[in-house]
Every structure is written in structure tokens, then in C-alpha cells.
């Protein structure tokens, strides 16, 4: 029986921890709410294209996991993740990526986002500095903000983070971590060049600062030559975060960390506090899926699909956007990045864009110091071809009018 509520009960006055109460909700979630209104052409989402989720194969993987492993596949499991899957991921890292790995290097996580959170919890005391690209992934900033991190940033060119800027920041602020999205970065689509990778590794080694290479998009390359991963160049100075979210399906919430064996127990402790372990059945499903050789054709299918979308968006931008606006030309991933003429605010323009039923994410949230007023991110992989043509046309007209 419910005890009669006392008039003193007021959950809004409960003493939420200050650093949580002060944490801002993601601006992007707010934009997504608006952009998911009916009739709006949205380039705002961070989602992969749902039509590419291999539902029949996932059904097969689920049935196979249940048949083969019976009740074990829904029992509690090791915090680091089930051994056969970790062995397989270590073997693939060794053979396919040149990253000498064993089960002791691998920790299964509930998506790369949890990997970021684990790293933040393991390293960051309030006020500690993290070196990031400028701009950087907003979800990482959110996780780092929770631990009251401060940021020192280095700008990028078309080849990724500028090393001399990074060095200056390291000398000035002595960051505890270097956080990078080295492949087809969210938000810019920029991928780090080979030489730059070597330089960044050398810099990190010189100061003994770990590089956290958040890499959800590396497999979705649809143009250009494969480049070695930061971890294959840097070995133990790099902790790699990987995920099945963009190559398979994000709702599985399955990713993994590959880091130095001597540090993994710290990450394991943090993971234990957070959720004990990642979903057992999801791990067995993916294990079966990988063992059946289904991943490679899936990656190929996604890459081809996204290439066509990206090419169409690039053509449309070329046709519809005025001189004075520039954009990146990604070789993979989900996003491209637009710079409007310097005096034009992408944030202010968004309201007018939404009146014309087209949405994007303005760049500001991706800059730790709230810069980048004239920038915006476009997701090319979820809209239909017709939406890309029409949406870019509407945006182009709007920018013309504002110039
Ligand atoms: C750079 C980056 N890191 C991490 C994530 C989160 O990935 P996951 O679904 O594996 O948690 C995303 C998702 O958009 C991302 O873009």
C-alpha cells in the first residue's frame, strides 16, 4: 500500500550532485527533436542508415547464439567480455591491422561512448587538461565535462591535427590525454594523414601522454588508400576505441577497447562499477556473426552505399552553394563539414533553415570553447537521394539570400 505522501516530499529539491546539476543537456539532442518533425529534411542526425542493418543475419546470429550457448548466453559474464570474442578481436587486430594483440589487451564495452567514459573516469581529476582536435566529437566533450576536464586544443588542416599547435598546447597545459578521432572524424569527416599519424605518435611518446584514438568510422572508407591505424604505429602509447555501431547496428551497444595489457585492469574496475559487463547475448551474437564471415561483405555494402550518398551531396553542394562557402570532401564516414562566410552564423541560420524544412547541426557544440560560429555538420548517409538534392538546394538558396 502506498504510504500517504507527506507534503514535504519534493523531488525537485533533492540535492543532486553539483557537477551533475550543472551539466548541460546536449544541444544536439534539442536540434534532433526539431529536425525529426514531419516534413523536415534532416542532415542533423548522427545515425547510420537504418536500411543497411542486416536484419536477417542478426536474426540468424541471435538464433545461433541461443542454440549453441543455451542459457550461458544470457548469464552474467566476465567484465572484460567473453573470451572467444576477445580472442577473435585480438587475432583480427594482429592479422588485419598489424596491432600485436592478445585477450589481455581487449576489453568489451557497451559502445565506444562507454570507452570514452571509462577513460575519462580512469584518468581525469577535476581541472585536468585533455588535448583535443578543434573541433571534436561532442559526445566525448560531454563525457569529459562530467569529470570537470579542461581542454587545450589544436586546429586541423585536411590532414588532421596540426602537430606544432599540439606541441605548444602540450608544453603549456601538460594534458593527461590526447583524444583524437583519427578516421573520418565526427564532425568534420577529416582523416589523419600517414605522416601526421607518425608525428602525433612521436609527440605523444616524447611526453608519455596516452593517445585515445576513438575510431568508429575507420572501416567505412569509400575512397583512397587504407592508412595504418594510430595503434599500429604507436603500440602501447595508443588506446584504441572501436565499435560495431556504425558498421553493424548501434542498438547492439557493443564496442571494444584495445590498450596496453598493464593498464587494462584499471579500465576493468571502472567498467565493473558502471555495468558489470556488456550484454552477454550481444557478444555471442557478434562472435557468431564474425566467425561466419558476414562482417566483410556488410562493410563493403555500407561503404558503397555511403560513397554514393557522399558523392551526391558533394555534387549538390558544388551546384547549389555560393562561392564563399567551403566544405570538406571525406573519403569515408558519415559526415561532411561546411564553413560559411566568416560573418555568417550557422546557429542563427538554423531557425530560417527549419522554416524551410531543412535541418543541420551547427558547429559550435563541437568546439570546447564554443567557437566555430560559421560552421555546420551535414550527415549524408541517412537522407534519401531526393532529400539530399532538395535539402542542399534549399540551404544553398538560404545562404545566397543571407550573403
Ligand atoms: C567519434 C564517436 N565516438 C563515439 C561514438 C559513440 O559510438 P557508440 O555507439 O559505439 O557508443 C560516436 C557516435 O556517433 C562517434 O561519432
SSE map:
Blueprint: H1 18-21, H2 27-35, E1 41-42, H3 55-69, H4 83-97, E2 106-109, H5 112-123, E3 129-134, H6 138-146, E4 150-157, E5 160-161, H7 163-173, E6 177-180, H8 194-207, E7 211-214, H9 230-234, E8 238-243, E9 255-258, H10 264-275, H11 280-291, H12 295-320, E10 326-327, E11 335-339, H13 346-355, E12 358-359, E13 361-362, E14 375-379, H14 385-402
Residues 46, 111-113, 137, 139, 181, 186, 214, 216, 243, 245, 250, 255 line the site of pyridoxal-5'-phosphate.
Q: For the residues shown, what is the average pLDDT?
A: 95
**CATH C-level category of the largest domain:** Alpha Beta
Read across the widest sheet, the strand sequence of neighbours is 2-9-8-7-6-3-4-5
The CATH topology of the largest domain, please? Aspartate Aminotransferase, domain 2
Show unreliable segments.
none
CATH superfamily of the largest domain: Type I PLP-dependent aspartate aminotransferase-like (Major domain)
CATH architecture of the largest domain: 3-Layer(aba) Sandwich
Bound molecules: pyridoxal-5'-phosphate
- The DSSP helix count reads 14
Number of DSSP-assigned strands: 14
Distance between the termini: 66 Å
Helix content: 40-55%
Q: Characterize the biggest β-sheet.
A: 8 strands, mixed
What percent strand?
5-15%
Helix/strand class: alpha/beta
Rg estimate, integer Å: 22 Å
Q: How many domains would you count in the coordinates?
A: 2
Amino acid at each position: 500500500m502506498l504510504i500517504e505522501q507527506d507534503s514535504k516530499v519534493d523531488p525537485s529539491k533533492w540535492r543532486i550532485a553539483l557537477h551533475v546539476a550543472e551539466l548541460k543537456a546536449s544541444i544536439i539532442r534539442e536540434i534532433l527533436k526539431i529536425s525529426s518533425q514531419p516534413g523536415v529534411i534532416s542532415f542533423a542526425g548522427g545515425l547510420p542508415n537504418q536500411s543497411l542493418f542486416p536484419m536477417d543475419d542478426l536474426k540468424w546470429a541471435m538464433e545461433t547464439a541461443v542454440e549453441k550457448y543455451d542459457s550461458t548466453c544470457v548469464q552474467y559474464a566476465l567484465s572484460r567480455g567473453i573470451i572467444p570474442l576477445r580472442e577473435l578481436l585480438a587475432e583480427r587486430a594482429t592479422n588485419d591491422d598489424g596491432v600485436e594483440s592478445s585477450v589481455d589487451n581487449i576489453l568489451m564495452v557497451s559502445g565506444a561512448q562507454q570507452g570514452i567514459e571509462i577513460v575519462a573516469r580512469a584518468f581525469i581529476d577535476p581541472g585536468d587538461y585533455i588535448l583535443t582536435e578543434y573541433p571534436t566529437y561532442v559526445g566525448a566533450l560531454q563525457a569529459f565535462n562530467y569529470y570537470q576536464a579542461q581542454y587545450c586544443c589544436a586546429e586541423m588542416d585536411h590532414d588532421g591535427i596540426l602537430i606544432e599547435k599540439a606541441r605548444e598546447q602540450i608544453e603549456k597545459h601538460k594534458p593527461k590525454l590526447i583524444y583524437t578521432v583519427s578516421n573520418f572524424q565526427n564532425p568534420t569527416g577529416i582523416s589523419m594523414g600517414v605522416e601526421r599519424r607518425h608525428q602525433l605518435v612521436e609527440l605523444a611518446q616524447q611526453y608519455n601522454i596516452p593517445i585515445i584514438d576513438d575510431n568508429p568510422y575507420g572501416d567505412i572508407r569509400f575512397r583512397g588508400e587504407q592508412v595504418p591505424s594510430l595503434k599500429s604505429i604507436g603500440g602501447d602509447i595508443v588506446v584504441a576505441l572501436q565499435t560495431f555501431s556504425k558498421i553493424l547496428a548501434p542498438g547492439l551497444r557493443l564496442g571494444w577497447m584495445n590498450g596496453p595489457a598493464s593498464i587494462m585492469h584499471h579500465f576493468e574496475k571502472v567498467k565493473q562499477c558502471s555495468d558489470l559487463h556488456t550484454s552477454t547475448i550481444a557478444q555471442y551474437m557478434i562472435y557468431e556473426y564474425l566467425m561466419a564471415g558476414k562482417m566483410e561483405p556488410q562493410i563493403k555494402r555500407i561503404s558503397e552505399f555511403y560513397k554514393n550518398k557522399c558523392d551526391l551531396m558533394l555534387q549538390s553542394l558544388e551546384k547549389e552553394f555560393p562561392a564563399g562557402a567551403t566544405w570538406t570532401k571525406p573519403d569515408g564516414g558519415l559526415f561532411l563539414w561546411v564553413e560559411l562566410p566568416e560573418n555568417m552564423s550557422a546557429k542563427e541560420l538554423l531557425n530560417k533553415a527549419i522554416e524551410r524544412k531543412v535541418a543541420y547541426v551547427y558547429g559550435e557544440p563541437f568546439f570546447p570553447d564554443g567557437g566555430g560560429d560559421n560552421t555546420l555538420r551535414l550527415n549524408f548517409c541517412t537522407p534519401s537521394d531526393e532529400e539530399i538534392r532538395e535539402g542542399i538546394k534549399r540551404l544553398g538558396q538560404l545562404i545566397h539570400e543571407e550573403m
